[in-house]
């Protein structure tokens, strides 16, 4: 049967008022990912009501190990006199051992899950677009297949720093003390802002920053000798997978912002690039059968409801045949994805 716990029991746990049996139930309850998210929500509520609390998992773990060492049996001090006394001592000692082991298991589990303690993840699936309001009232729109990691504690009152994998548009709330907002990407690109609107893209083939309002500063942390770069509205900065950096001024931004409205916008975009964007957004494989077709270009705005809806429009415009070569079967392979092959049809003779 699934374990359910009330908020009051968890709050008692934060205050050290729970019994050994309740600690065991809490440990079983935390095995459920949904319970973990509820646990962190209640922890944040309790921390707001008890501002003196600052979680320090490493210190707690060290204290628990010290506790176990302190309760280790000292056999030299035990005198075997009367049997009832020995049994009573052994019973108490085993109980203390059990309590210490439960504490170690709870603290060790918290230590192993410290990233989940400290950070909250916002994630979107393929084809999903999601808008998030951060504690400092900044707004983030996450594109498909993206992850934003935000500190659970002190965000807004202290340093504002997030990590992004994928693509997102940020509308940053300006703070009275001009506190910076920092976005970091896996390829060690750092974006620093005060109050502005911009898009950050960071995937396998590199990173990109599109600035629509305000001013941002970029740094390449894997090259500490490189000078910071200041971007102005209309600028687009790119960092390739190989580490090549470029900055373009006075660019047309709508094509980079269309995904917020669940659309694709192309301007003389190659079929190869369109195929890549469809694969990236919907989590499918799109294969262009020949080089001549991959070099053809296309312009226009297309509604991005599904991979097949976009591909069908391309097929009608470019006289292309779409063949699905792999049917996904989630019951057999959860990672199985459909593959679409684009092939040029022969021109009809009038």
From TrEMBL:
<dbReference type="InterPro" id="IPR006860">
    <property type="entry name" value="FecR"/>
</dbReference>
<keyword id="KW-0472">Membrane</keyword>
<dbReference type="InterPro" id="IPR012373">
    <property type="entry name" value="Ferrdict_sens_TM"/>
</dbReference>
<dbReference type="Pfam" id="PF16344">
    <property type="entry name" value="FecR_C"/>
</dbReference>
<feature type="domain" description="FecR protein">
    <location>
        <begin position="121"/>
        <end position="217"/>
    </location>
</feature>
<dbReference type="GO" id="GO:0016989">
    <property type="term" value="F:sigma factor antagonist activity"/>
</dbReference>
<keyword id="KW-1133">Transmembrane helix</keyword>
<feature type="domain" description="Protein FecR C-terminal">
    <location>
        <begin position="263"/>
        <end position="324"/>
    </location>
</feature>
<dbReference type="Pfam" id="PF04773">
    <property type="entry name" value="FecR"/>
</dbReference>
<protein>
    <submittedName>
        <fullName>DUF4974 domain-containing protein</fullName>
    </submittedName>
</protein>
<feature type="transmembrane region" description="Helical">
    <location>
        <begin position="95"/>
        <end position="113"/>
    </location>
</feature>
<keyword id="KW-0812">Transmembrane</keyword>
<dbReference type="InterPro" id="IPR032508">
    <property type="entry name" value="FecR_C"/>
</dbReference>
């Amino acid at each position: 049967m699934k374990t359910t716990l009330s908020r009051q029991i968890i709050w008692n746990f934060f205050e050290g008022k729970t019994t050994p049996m309740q600690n065991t139930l809490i440990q079983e309850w935390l095995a459920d990912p949904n319970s973990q998210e509820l646990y962190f929500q209640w922890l944040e509520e309790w921390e707001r009501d008890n501002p003196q609390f600052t979680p320090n998992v490493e210190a707690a773990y060290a204290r628990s190990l010290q506790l176990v060492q302190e309760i280790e049996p000292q056999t030299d001090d035990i005198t075997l006199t009367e049997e009832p006394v020995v049994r009573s001592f052994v019973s108490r000692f085993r109980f203390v051992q059990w309590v210490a082991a439960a504490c170690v298991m709870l603290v060790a589990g918290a230590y192993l899950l410290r990233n989940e303690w400290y950070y909250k993840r916002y994630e979107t699936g393929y084809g999903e677009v999601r808008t998030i309001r951060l504690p400092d009232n900044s707004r983030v729109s996450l594109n498909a297949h993206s992850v934003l990691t935000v500190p659970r504690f002190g965000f807004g009152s202290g340093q504002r720093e997030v990590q992004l994998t994928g693509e997102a548009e940020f509308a940053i709330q300006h703070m009275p003390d001009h506190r910076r907002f920092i976005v970091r990407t896996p390829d060690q690109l750092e974006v620093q802002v005060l109050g502005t609107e911009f898009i950050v893209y960071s995937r396998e083939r590199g990173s990109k920053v599109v600035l629509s309002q305000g001013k941002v500063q970029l740094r390449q942390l894997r090259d500490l000798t490189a000078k910071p770069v200041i971007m102005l509205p209309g600028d687009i900065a790119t960092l390739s997978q190989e580490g090549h950096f470029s900055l373009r001024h006075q660019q047309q931004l709508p094509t980079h912002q269309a995904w917020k409205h669940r659309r694709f916008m192309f301007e003389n975009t190659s079929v190869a690039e369109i195929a890549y964007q469809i694969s990236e957004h919907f989590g499918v494989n799109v294969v262009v059968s020949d080089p001549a077709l991959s070099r053809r270009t296309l312009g226009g705005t297309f509604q991005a409801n599904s991979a097949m809806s976009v591909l069908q429009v391309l097929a009608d415009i470019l006289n292309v045949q779409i063949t699905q070569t792999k049917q996904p079967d989630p019951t057999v392979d959860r990672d199985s994805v459909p593959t679409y092959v684009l092939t040029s049809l022969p021109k009809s003779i009038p």
